[in-house]
Model the fold of this input.
Amino acid sequence: MFRFRCMSQDFPRFWPQFWPWLTLLAWCVPLLLTRSDTQSFLAHDEGLYAWRARGMLETGDWITPRSWDTLYLHKTPGFYWLLAMGFQVAGCSEWVARLPAILAGVGCTLLMYTLGRQLVGPAAGWLGAALLNLQFLWLSYSRQAVPDVPLIFGFLLGLTCLLRAETAGRPGQWRFGAGVCWGLALLLKSLALIPPLLGLLPYLILEQRRHRHLTSPVLYLGTAAGLIPLLAWLVLAAQANGWPTLISALIGVVASGDRVGDQRSTVLYYLWNVPANSFPWFLLGILGVVALLRHPVPRYQSLLLGFPLVVLGVISLMGNRIPHYALPLYPWLALLAGVGLEQHILAPKHLGRPARGLVVLFTGLGVILCASVLVLTFPWVQTRLNLGADLLAYRPAVLVLSLGWLGLILGDRLPRWGLVGLWLGAAWLALLLAARAGAFGDYTLGLKAFLARPAVAGVLDHYAVNFIWDRGGKLSTLLGFYTPILGKRVPSLEVLEAGHYVWIGPGTPEQAAGRYRVIGEFEGWELVKTLPPSEAQPQPE
Done:
């Protein structure tokens, strides 16, 4: 197996065996748990998943996801079940809905260290696992009530079992475990598992003569066992709704794929989007690729380099291109960045030209960010740029990041682990401060403050609230979830007697004038109370 120079071999000597796991937990848990005082869902898709999961719990129908009377059979229900079980145990809240993704984010961090230790050595593996949580898009989705990161956790767990089969005395049980993990992961988000599974083909095909995974019936038997819950749901859903309805929904999500996402994007979309969302760590990933090309890994080169290339090609050829479709790439980018840090920063006696170039680049970024923070302290600049308090709350995070990266100018004068610690630590603390300011949790600014108003909260806490809307948009989902006692969706106020409470959405046809009193309004949505005819307000002609 390929051995990195210097630190990779000394790493286990000065770190007790359990320290990598404890330090990674201390690294990622604060990033995943730190939150602002106000939290609100991202309407699409957090609100949708939470809303449908709550509907399962309240209706008792755990087979058919729905929003009001509309069925949603195009997505497998595994993640809805996770959320609904959490709501049943701990109540409906953002914290409970986001817990599966948070736990999966912790699990992915530990699994990447496990995989990295086997693939590229313990030092690069640890650095890669740590860098995973510094990528903005990955950290954001690790804190959202969506199934993407739990799905990737299931994939990585299966891959860990598959690689363990190469060194285990009884490989059959590990191959069976890999199949079970992937079969169960399909229940979370079905088609989203296809790109990472295809990404394993270079390793499975090119190394087949050595590992024999593809000809092992145990692997397929495990996959069949993992698919049992999914197959059971398909049968039950067909019995409840009919096979034509189910098949139409499943085929429809594939047929409509070319109408989802950025319609102006091309096959080159992810070539700029992924670097932008993993900046600046993808630069270290490039150095990692250079190191692997110079010192190939005999047993795993096809996995380390083949996996990201195949996944990138698959998602680029898909009809719909959305940033989070590339999430399976981010653990690999982090691992390659860990290789780049270990090989170009830690291992050499002197920093080479690429490493020095990166240090100069990051120092320059530190100068620019520090100057920007100083300029934004002047009130007239804030007024000229129309900066609100929500944006100015991120100044401490930017200042910490800039000062940390300014320290990189010391270069060779710092111990190598000190240089890496300053590099990564500044980004870690900046993300922590950004999370505290609301960067990863409050996605609909002002909504929770509006719902907490005494007049609004008094109604929501004690009365059922009906809904009327023509084109409800994203807020209809959020208001449906945040309304504790749901009434019915009705066509107009005329069907309701006096004393009922109603959410009226924007774009709704004019309601009975004077027949209601407005209690509160937020972005076009009005919470109103219907009035009896004797209290109706006369309208001017």
Notes: The longest strand covers residues 516-522.
